Amino acid sequence: MIWVIGGTKDSRDFIESFPFKKRLVVTTATEYGGKLLEEMKDIKIFCKRLDLNNMRSFVKENNIEQIVDLSHPYAEEVSKNAIECSKLSGIEYVRFERENLVSEDGVVEFSELDFMIKYLETLEGNILVTLGSNNLYRFENIKNKSNIYFRILPKWEMVKKAEDLGILPKNIIAMQGPFSKELNIAMMRQLDIKYIVSKKGGSTGGEREKIESAREVGAISIMLSRPNVEYPVVFSDIKELIKHIIQKTN
């Protein structure tokens, strides 16, 4: 069996294109990630977080011969554990990594979230943060929180998490993407956004749309760099990834 670490649009695209779906077993860290794949046929889907020990057990229990990592570019711990699991289990690990867009002029980039937050505290004007709900707690004590709008998924537990951290309802934007350039522009103009904060998620993650919408309204893009993970085998093209897997497993 081939283990697909999924929960992203990339993983959905991969599964839809893979010709031997009965050979796939998929895990997602969240129920939401699983719902993206729930209509898929002929594949097993498990929705739970796995640490390294859980991964090793999962590989044995499901007769895994290959790990294909299509997790989010910022799921650093998941990827590192999967790489270690592959080494300990004696099986191949293959990574799909979204192509990194070339950094553009006028974009402020940080490699550490803590440094980014300290910088954000120095800014005047409204800020739109699109880093996801997992990073909300890092903003709990930021001094200018009343000027920051947080765009998160429209799930009750995520909205509750934001409110528990002292984020006012007026500062919570609970919406499901993808977000077009036009929608970003309308939102930024409505809220008088001067800065938009996001991850370097590539084309799939809406990075280009955010940069272009910021430029259109005269705002500044502030981006968090991807984690630096040494992947043993990496592909940025789904077709090439599938070709490699088929050659290795046949």
Question: In terms of topology, how is this protein built?
Answer:
Blueprint: E1 2-5, H1 9-17, E2 24-28, H2 31-35, E3 44-47, H3 52-61, E4 66-69, H4 76-89, E5 92-96, E6 107-110, H5 113-120, E7 126-129, E8 148-152, H6 156-164, E9 172-174, H7 181-190, E10 193-199, H8 207-217, E11 220-224, E12 234-235, H9 238-249
Characterization of this structure:
With 250 residues, the chain is α/β, with parallel strands linked by helices. The protein folds into 2 domains: 2-99 and 228-249, Rossmann fold; 107-224, Rossmann fold, CATH 3.40.50. 35% of the residues lie in helices and 21% in strands. The protein contains 9 helices and 12 strands. The strands form 2 sheets. Strands 3-2-1-4-5-12 form a 6-stranded parallel β-sheet, sandwiched between helices. Strands 6-11-10-7-8-9 form a 6-stranded parallel β-sheet, with helices on both faces. Strand 1 (2-5), helix 1 (9-17) and strand 2 (24-28) form a beta-alpha-beta unit. The model has no long low-confidence stretch (mean pLDDT 89).
Question: Can you write the helix and strand succession as a string?
Answer: EHEHEHEHEEHEEHEHEHEEH
What is the SS-derived class? Answer: alpha/beta
Largest sheet: 6 strands, parallel
What count of helical segments does DSSP give? 9
Strand arrangement, major sheet: 3-2-1-4-5-12
Instruction: Write the CATH homologous superfamily of the largest domain.
Output: NAD(P)-binding Rossmann-like Domain
Overall mean confidence score, pLDDT: 89
The tally of strands reads 12
Strand percent estimate: 15-25%
Coarse morphology: elongated
- If classified by CATH, what would the architecture of the largest domain be? 3-Layer(aba) Sandwich
Radius of gyration: 19 Å
